[in-house]
Amino acid sequence: MSSSHVLTKYDYFEKRGLLAPKPKFPFGNCKGAYTGKQNIIYDLNDIYQQFRKKTSFVGYFEAKTPKILVISPDVAKDVMIKYFKNFHDNEIASLFDKEADPLLARNPFVLKGEEWKEKRAEVTPAFTSTRLRSLFPLVEEVLERFKNYVHKEIPKNEPFDIREISAKFTTDVVSSCIFNADAHSFTKEKPEIREMGRKLLDFTSSGAQFKFLILTMFPWIRKFHKISFVPKAVHEFFINLMEQAVTMREKSNIKRDDYLSYLIELKKKKNLADIDMAAHGVTFFTDGFETSSLAIAYMLYEIANDKRVQEKLRKQINEELIDENGKIIYEKMLEHEYLDQIFHETLRLHPIIMFFNRECTEEITFDCNGKDFKIEKGMSVNVPIYSIHRDPDYYVNPTEFVPERFDAENGGVKEFRNRGVLMPFGDGSRICLGMRFALMQSKAAVIEIVRNFELSVNDKTQKPLKIGATEIFNVKSGGLWLDMKAIK
Ligand code: HEM
């Protein structure tokens, strides 16, 4: 088989003796997603529920493409860690064309094989603890803007869409940390960087959805026609932004051991082209602002929804995390147990990336219920982290928000990660590159808001929370609405 998209007959799994739900033409087992009725994670979760406890993985069809859905966390770990060399590429890589979308296609997330290895090695040193620490003053500046914005808006007596303001925060943080630019998210109605960022990742527009559909159903089209997702104006905007950032930094006397200075060194050392520099910036921007803003929004939502957790956290923040000048104590923030439990419990319930799709890069045989099953090169293997995170075999009352489930006597967060049942950042060699940056900006935002404001959920929030049908990330329909009251 040359690629995972080879059209195959629906008896593919039956012939090979692997359990699989019955597919139906033309959508296979993902009718909900293809007809726009529900997010694909709900189709996958239905399959997961049907086969939970029965087997360690099953076959299923996305339209006419056969894929594997992992059920057991042991197999998930095998795919992501132990047999990484057999599954080292993300399936999404095949959707982007390097020439048509140079900014997105240079992101490690979508790169394959040696190119991925090289780019990942290039970016990794940018995230050392010293560099992260040197970014914190920039984060603190934005925290001040965040707090002042909420104070200013409170008299309007309207609920806050916490997603929207969390996105203002992360957009300002990320633009300041990479592009050295103030994005003006809290002051302008439609700040340009944010708008451009939105357009860069707007895969939910009807045009982009159509392109995705075409590419997944007729992948061979790419051979004849290069399909681009990023509009030209957006492309140019980010190249200019990065150029300006580099020029300004080089002209100024600022000596900061941050991400931009690292990129400037890299540019000199490796003779990087402008497009490579811009792509580095865009990688940080695209991977950093939306994912973290969702994490912050869900943390604040869950804290607002549970007065007990809110009061317990506020007390600990005031007693342990703030110094005599009213500043966050950076080192303590990073290692604070309860805050870390809240972070992980939030991402257990609301993993921002809901499943990982790895492409089999080298044929391998796995045992499934005592029978061998050969996973062919090109086949996609899907790990539905959303379902594993909510499996009652691993979590008591899995739909409830209980940060204490990660208490030390239960082994702490680490134990759940080791068992492969908690993977909000993925695992193995492709684990999220920005994890520590994400933890830093998310925890800081939560501390600042919880110490200054009393939070409660406003009825405008549509319950039960439901993931939007066409969303790529875990985004709930209708927004997350909170009331916020200043603490005197
Ligand atoms: C709470 C926020 C975040 C979450 C939940 C998150 C989650 C993830 C996940 C699940 C993956 C895939 C891992 C895998 O396939 O095993 C990933 C990859 C990645 N993330 Fe994050 N991420 C977050 C924030 C960030 C930030 C802030 C950055 C950059 C500053 C970033 C950069 C990346 C990159 C470059 C990859 C691709 C890694 C590779 O394929 O080698 N992420 N992230």
Automatic annotation (TrEMBL):
Question: What cofactor does this protein call for?
Answer: heme
Q: Which InterPro entries match?
A: Cyt_P450 (IPR001128), Cyt_P450_CS (IPR017972), Cyt_P450_E_grp-IV (IPR002403), Cyt_P450_sf (IPR036396), Insect_CytP450_Detox (IPR050476)
List of residues binding heme: 432
GO CC, any one term: endoplasmic reticulum membrane
Give the subcellular location.
Answer: Endoplasmic reticulum membrane; Microsome membrane
Q: Which of UniProt's keywords are assigned here?
A: Endoplasmic reticulum, Heme, Iron, Membrane, Metal-binding, Microsome, Monooxygenase, Oxidoreductase
Membrane topology field: Peripheral membrane protein
Question: What would be an example GO MF term here?
Answer: monooxygenase activity
Instruction: Give the primary localization class.
Output: endoplasmic reticulum
For this protein, the record's Pfam families field holds: p450
Tell me the SUPFAM superfamilies matching this sequence. Cytochrome P450
Described function: May be involved in the metabolism of insect hormones and in the breakdown of synthetic insecticides.
Q: Which family does it belong to?
A: Belongs to the cytochrome P450 family.
Protein name per Swiss-Prot or TrEMBL:
Cytochrome P450
Specify the species: Polypedilum vanderplanki
